[in-house]
């Protein structure tokens, strides 16, 4: 829960900064006619819209279960995160590439480049503050993991989405500043368009990475292997459980996990006793992992579990062959 609060603060900070920066960049682009600056303005407006969608996704995902969605609405966060990646690609990258190509084909000189430099410098400061906040939030969430490994294993897309967007914004500002400088000093306005194209490429690359990670969460990713193994060990340690055959997990949201356990019980136990053991398993698992929102237990022998796993693998192979 603490990690989610930190992620939400990072999103709010990024939204506040982007709205201010976007308006400033747009005025500068209209004043100077810079293609790179217009691309940066569009980028900031897209980022602002993305942060609004992330906040909306966080709010929707927190709704409690109901009759239509008995496991809750947690995956709404993953859906809106994927939408953010698509918008970043379609609007941010698309408009930047269009602006750049148009400016290269029909170049026009930049007026008052000093205005652009001042705006970009201020934007870099604002974006840098937002980046630092998102970097701290994600650093706390990833723990001892490396940065890329932290992204791969994270179940909270709002944490790394903002970090990626802010990083792309800082790179874009640097490219825009260089493009405007070279365009002015070399009297070659096409370089301003080239800078806009490069900004589009950066945004397209970031959007592709975000879409890939968000897609994996949207279609269902299992809990961390250490968490799954620990849950299996907890179940195996309860009196009356002969063996824990296996465990399946999936994340509905960053702090919502569904668990399915295959357990073998002592054959001498009656139904009421098994029911009591299942309750103890659930109690102990949730005591250690409160993010487990649903736990299902299937009484099964190791042989039956092995046969079920083989059958599932064979069905998957058949579908792959047919496809």
Structural features, described:
It is a single chain. By secondary structure, the chain is mainly α. It folds into two domains: 2-219, Up-down Bundle (Alpha-lytic protease prodomain-like), CATH 1.20.1510; 225-322, 2-Layer Sandwich (Alpha-Beta Plaits). 73% of the residues lie in helices and 10% in strands. It has a three-stranded mixed sheet with strand order 1-2-3, sandwiched between helices. It is elongated and about 90 Å long. It starts with a helix and ends with a helix.
Give keywords:
323 residues, mainly alpha, Alpha-lytic protease prodomain-like, Alpha-Beta Plaits, 2 domains, 3-stranded mixed sheet, elongated
What is the structure about, briefly put?
The protein has 323 residues and is mostly helical.
CATH homologous superfamily annotation of the largest domain: Cation efflux protein transmembrane domain
If you consult CATH, what is the topology of the largest domain? Answer: Alpha-lytic protease prodomain-like
Helix content: over 70%
Low-confidence segments: none
The tally of domains stands at: 2
Instruction: List the helices and strands in order.
Output: HHHHHHHHEEHEH
Molecular shape: elongated
Characterize the largest beta sheet: strand count, sense, and whether it forms a barrel. Answer: 3 strands, mixed
Could you say what the CATH architecture of the largest domain is? Up-down Bundle
Mean pLDDT: 86
Widest β-sheet, arrangement of strands:
1-2-3
- Strand pairing plus helix content: what structural class? mainly alpha
């Amino acid at each position: 829960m603490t990690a989610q609060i930190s992620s939400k603060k990072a999103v709010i900070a990024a939204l506040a900064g982007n709205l201010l920066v976007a308006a400033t960049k747009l005025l500068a682009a209209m004043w100077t006619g810079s293609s790179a600056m217009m691309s940066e303005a569009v980028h900031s407006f897209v980022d602002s819209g993305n942060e609004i969608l992330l906040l909306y996704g966080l709010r929707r995902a927190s709704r409690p279960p109901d009759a239509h969605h008995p496991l809750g609405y947690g995956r709404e966060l993953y859906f809106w995160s994927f939408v953010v990646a698509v918008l970043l690609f379609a609007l941010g990258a698309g408009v930047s590439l269009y602006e750049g190509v148009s400016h290269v084909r029909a170049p026009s000189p930049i007026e008052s480049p000093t205005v652009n430099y001042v705006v970009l410098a201020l934007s870099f400061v604002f974006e840098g503050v937002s980046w630092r906040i998102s970097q701290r939030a994600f650093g706390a969430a990833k723990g001892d993991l490396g940065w890329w490994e932290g992204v791969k294993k994270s179940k909270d897309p709002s944490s790394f989405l903002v970090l990626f967007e802010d990083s792309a914004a800082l790179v874009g500002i640097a490219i825009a500043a260089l493009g405007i400088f070279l365009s002015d000093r070399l009297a070659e306005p096409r370089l301003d368009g080239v800078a806009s194209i490069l900004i589009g490429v950066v945004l397209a690359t970031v959007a592709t990475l975000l879409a890939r990670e968000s897609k994996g969460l949207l279609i269902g990713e299992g809990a961390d292997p250490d968490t799954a193994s620990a849950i299996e060990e907890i179940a195996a340690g309860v009196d009356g459980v002969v063996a824990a055959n296996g465990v399946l997990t999936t994340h509905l949201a960053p702090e919502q996990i569904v668990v399915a356990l295959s357990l073998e019980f002592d054959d001498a136990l009656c139904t009421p006793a098994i029911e009591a053991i299942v309750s103890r398993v659930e109690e102990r698992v949730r005591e250690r992992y409160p993010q487990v929102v649903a736990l299902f237990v299937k009484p099964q022998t190791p042989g039956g579990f092995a046969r079920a796993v083989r059958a599932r693998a064979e069905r998957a192979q058949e579908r792959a062959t047919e496809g």
